[in-house]
Design a protein that fits this description.
By secondary structure, the chain is an alpha/beta fold. It has one domain: Nucleotidyltransferase, domain 5 (2-Layer Sandwich). The protein contains 5 helices and 5 strands. The protein has a 5-stranded mixed sheet with strand order 3-2-1-4-5. β1 and β2 form a beta hairpin. α1 packs parallel to α2 and α3 crosses α5. The chain starts with a strand and ends with a helix.
Length: about 180
């Protein structure tokens, strides 16, 4: 099971972070400013701090939505994601790139439009998880973490089922071989 994890929702305006380290958890949003260079450097500084302060073994990084029509947005997101990934690669941290639609579908989160009712979103997350977050970016990072844990459990369960099926088949084959004297 993954127990030392950082989940990152990258954005130039506000990068959401959720960290789960053993029994402790922490979240925040790294706010950007109007100068792109300063925002990117600020994100790098905070990511460095967290991966140095916590014994992180795995990182979940949200992939950007390829359907975004504005190529400037995609370029900026790619730059931010690249800076984050370079810090993670430098420390040999396992990386999971999480497509937006994957975590939203698994966690049952509808796509939200600009100017959506975020108050309802915050209340729903608080009611379901008994956790309070200050920004939607922190919530998104947290939900990516929960999605990863859920997918990991499904994978383990699926593997266990396949192993059990193989053992059952081997036992049946052995019984058949014993019945026909083929040892």
């Amino acid at each position: 099971m993954i127990d030392q994890i950082i989940s990152i929702d990258p954005s130039l305006k506000s990068t959401g972070i959720y960290i789960k380290s053993g029994n402790a958890s922490f979240s925040m949003a790294i706010k950007g400013n109007k100068h792109k260079r300063d925002s990117v450097l600020n994100i790098r500084t905070w990511i460095r701090k967290y991966i140095n302060d916590f014994p992180i073994t795995t990182a979940i990084v949200e992939d950007y939505a390829y359907a975004i029509q504005n190529s400037r947005s995609i370029t900026t997101l790619a730059e931010v994601k690249g800076v984050i990934l370079s810090e993670l690669y430098a420390r040999n941290i396992n990386i999971i790139i999480m497509p937006i639609q994957t975590w939203k579908t698994v966690m049952g989160v509808p796509s939200m439009k600009k100017n959506a009712d975020y108050v309802k979103y915050f209340k729903k997350i608080y009611a379901l998880n008994d956790k309070y977050f200050k920004t939607a970016d922190e919530i998104d990072a947290y939900l990516m973490y929960l999605c990863t844990i859920k997918l990991e459990k499904w994978a383990v369960t699926e593997t266990q089922i396949k192993i059990q099926e193989k053992i059952k088949k081997a036992l049946i084959d052995k019984k058949e071989n014993d019945a026909y004297g083929k040892n």
